[in-house]
Amino acid sequence: MFRNVSLKGVAGTAIILPGGYNNRRSEVTSTRGSRAPKPRLRDIADVAKVSTATVSRVLNDKPGASDEVREAVLAAMDMLGYERPAILRAKAQGLVGVVLPELVNPVFGWFAQSLESRLAARGYTALLCTQSPGGTTEQQCVDMLLGQSVSGIIFVSGLHADAIADHQHYLDLAARGIAATYINGFAPEIDGTFISVDDGSAMDASVKHLVSLGHSRIGLAIGPDRFVPSRSKIDAFRNALQQHLGIEDAAGHISPTLYTVEGGHAASAALIESGHTAIICGSDLMALGAIRAARSAGLDVPDDLSVVGYDDSSLIAFTDPPLTTIHQPVTQMSAAAVATLIDELDGHPGPRTDLLFRAELIVRGSTGTAPAREHK
């Protein structure tokens, strides 16, 4: 059913991949030779932006460095190809499962990396499990992780975010005393701490920005409304249109689709056809589809159509044109998810509510002044 492959030793990452299930971990050996290079404190300090004395304290597991600084030093070691000291690897306190919907969308890879590094800094090994359409299910991921005796599980945009999905396996986890934290998608019937982006402030900032550029025909390309994040974005978009443009009925400005490039293309093509000059998308991938739809229609971005994405995932600043987007605070959200989960493992349950993290609008080259036809 699955194969468990350990990538970074004890306090690192194990990725659960499709394949024959093997309860033994296969260690991946370094391709750089039989002996890892000796760490150079100055190199690590330069990358981590700390002093060599601080690096020495972290590598020797001495007090005087915050969790954030320890994480930066360990990340710098990984980047430079140095093996983590045995004294740190030996401190692993247990396994924590990280369940993601997939890794095609860069934002989920960003979450995986951020969560893993924070767990490692606290002495935990992350077991990553991704779902696949028609393949591994979330329930199978949970069963596998429980078989590995994980201490807790962090779910990122899982079935907890699907309002019509069966949530029984979450209730079963709580009944078994397995700590869990949920990112992006609040479900009040599930016992756990939830961490989400403040979609209200994100949509308001996006609409306000486009209105300031003269746009009044603003559309929303969004994923299926059964997902909690989709619903919250839709509600916030409706409120923003009403507040900033006086539009009472936003139905004709919303195009539901899939959270993919293809979905963004299809939804945006429909919005372009109905005369919209600006489109806010539910993800960066969808925004890339919107730009492709504009070009297919012979339009220029941003001269003829302004496009706003969502996530600010890697390399988005280097697209053509660079994408204006909502920066999802993945680093801060991951830190909070790990902190609340470990607090729970230590006997201090977190709040049973949705902790909202404010997003930031990053203005780049994909938005511009409304075209002349907007004012005809």
Quick take:
With 376 residues, the protein is α/β, with parallel strands linked by helices.
Description:
Mean pLDDT is 86; it is low at 1-36. Strands 3-1-2-5-4-6-7-8-14 form a nine-stranded mixed beta sheet, with helices on both faces. Strands 10-9-11-12-13-15 form a six-stranded mixed beta sheet, sandwiched between helices. α1 (41-48) packs across α2 and α1 packs across α3 (67-80). It is 38% helix and 19% strand. It has twelve helices and 15 strands. It is an alpha/beta fold and 376 residues long.
Indicate the topology.
Blueprint: E1 2-6, E2 13-18, E3 26-27, H1 41-48, H2 52-59, H3 67-80, H4 86-89, E4 94-100, H5 106-121, E5 124-130, H6 138-147, E6 152-156, H7 168-175, E7 179-183, E8 193-197, H8 199-212, E9 218-222, H9 228-245, E10 254-256, H10 261-273, E11 278-281, H11 284-296, E12 306-311, E13 324-327, H12 330-345, E14 354-357, E15 360-362
Parallel strand pairs: 1-3, 2-5, 4-5, 4-6, 6-7, 7-8, 8-14, 9-10, 9-11, 11-12, 12-13
Antiparallel strand pairs: 1-2, 13-15
Helix pairs in contact: 1-2, 1-3, 2-3, 3-5, 5-12, 8-9, 10-11
